[in-house]
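Re: the multi-chain job from yesterday

Posting the exact lines I submitted so nobody has to dig through the queue logs.
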Amino acid sequence: MRNILQKIKNAVRSRSIHVSYVDVGSCNGCDIEVLACLAPRYDIEQYGIYVHNNPREADVLLVIGSVTPQWVDKLRDIWEKIPEPKVAVAIGNCPISGCVYNRRGTLTTPPVENYIPIAASVPGCPPRPTEILSAILSVAPLIFKDYEENQK
Amino acid sequence: MRSIIYYVREFLRPEWLKTFFFARTAPLETPSYFKGYPARTEKECTRCLSCMMICPAPGAIAVLRKKDQWGPEIYPGHCIRCGLCVEACPEGVLSSGRILDVTRRDGTAFWSWYHLQVDDSLCMRCGNCCVSCPVNREIDPQLGATGTSSSDEVIMRIEGGRVTILHEEKCTGCKTCEINCPNRAIRVARMVEGVQGEEAEA
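And the result, structure tokens for all chains:
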């Protein structure tokens, strides 16, 4: 019985990934690429991914931008609001290394791994929509499949 | 009535149902002419460091030695895929998208030189820059301790109580003068200009 329930959950979750994105101080280039995923050309919703901005309903958090000091505590709050199972994906160079903001005199504190656990990162400045899509699609099953079974 | 029947029949067609429920945009492949991360070609790296000097992103490229052979290394978390290193390399060691084809077709290249600038309001005419310069020392071993020189071939010398730059083109960009200047009056800047045609071949 439990197995069947788990199988149903797996099937449903693989076709329904809720994504929420947060920009913690970037140049908006990666935001535009995430928005391009929503457009008919790339059409993220045909893969069952729904983008909205309520972390309490999200499974995947897309983190964009090198972290500014004002965002440090707020980013942790957002991460804690997301219900389990959850996963964070770093989009672009900024959350990985700070990219061009990683210089003396800039008010950024990259990388984002210092504040929340990051499961996957998509390098690029900005990354292509196809790369963002494939990253979400490949990391989501790893975390969500058999989640309840793995908890025991 | 006839139109309703027509619509029902139309919507029950297997092809229509198939497209309605299972239509997907074609698998999106990255075209070959998109600029990816620069990849190594089989050409030999001469370690001129042009790629590192032109790179706009901090920490994106480094020229490293692997088993007696030098070669550029790209770091994906830092690289912004602008392709400037591919264009700047005189040997064509890196390739990305169709940058190499386009530069060959158009005959374009980057031409770079070092520009020396002395801020007269900061300079205190000590002559440290002229004395410390390794190129100066090689050209004129008799260079005076105050930076005066009888040779016209030196990069710079003290003339009439101020630094005069004679041969900017001999500068190798080592920045020894910048380090030895007590007032940060002298500045070495690497200038890059895009050139095309006969200039690029020279």
